[in-house]
Amino acid sequence: MKTKDVKYANFKAEDIGDNYVAGYASTFGNVDAYGDVVEKGAFTRTLKARSGSIKFLKFHDPNQPIGKVTEIREDEKGLWVKAVFSSTVAGQEARTEVKEGVLDSFSIGFLPMKTKADKTDDGRVINRLQEVKLYEFSLVTFPANEQAVVTAVKSESDKPVLNELNQALLDQFGAFLLTKQLDEAAANDDAASEEIEDEDAAADDEAEKQIDTTVDEVSKAFSEALFSLKLEAALKTLRKRA
Fold first, then answer.
1. First-to-last CA distance in the chain?
2. Per residue in 141-191, pLDDT tens?
3. What whole-number distance in Å separates Cα of residue 119 and Cα of residue 127?
């Protein structure tokens, strides 16, 4: 089974109202900063299968859900989305950041399911995304595709930060792996220590058994020798008396 990495495509967003945000999270036909071109119909299957599972996040962080998707559809231009900000602190902070222009772009997180390599007239190699599996869209800060703009909801989105975002995700994942490896190493060390302690304890028990055996044997030999001496002395006494 082949696996594909989750990719992010980012688009410009605009603020339009009270506690909602809307606009295009992706547009068709244009080449983004990473050489990807989303083809018309790329979201058709995933929207039928996952329309109720798409998440609204901040910086693609699953630990930062900031609202709920209320509408998502594919039209002639691209993927249009609408979401309401959560009443949580994180949701309202994101809403404020959109209104203040701190966050002004959308970015989508997806798996490329069907792609086709192609070349532009100037010889540039591009990747045509013919079908994708959409997981979420996020508010970010730097766009890869500047044609996707938030245009009609009650709260704006953010610019996509691809390089910085992906680097942050890699750093987080690297830290997670390192922590996991350290935990596993510590667990292995503990297990090894317990095993060594068990082996040492077993060795000590065996040594004690050997010592006990030796002491018993020496005691027995000493007793036998002493008995022999006493017997010999008794015989000498009897001889003298005779």
1. 105
2. 775 555 544 543 333 333 333 444 454 555 555 555 555 555 666 666 666
3. 9
Structure tokens at 115: 């792609």
What predicted TM-score, i.e. pTM, was given to this entire model?
0.56
Of 64, 68, 79, 60, whose CA–CA distance to 135 is shortest? 60
pLDDT at position 103 is 84
How distant, in Å, are the alpha carbons of 27, 46, 131, 219 from that of 41?
11, 10, 7, 95
Which residues lie across from 82 on neighbouring strands? 22, 71
| Residue whose token pair is 């599996």 | 133
Q: Which two tokens stand for residue 147?
A: 């044609």
| Position 235, amino acid | L
Residue 23 in contact with residue 14, Cβ under 8 Å?
yes
Q: How many CB atoms lie within 10 A of CB 51?
A: 14
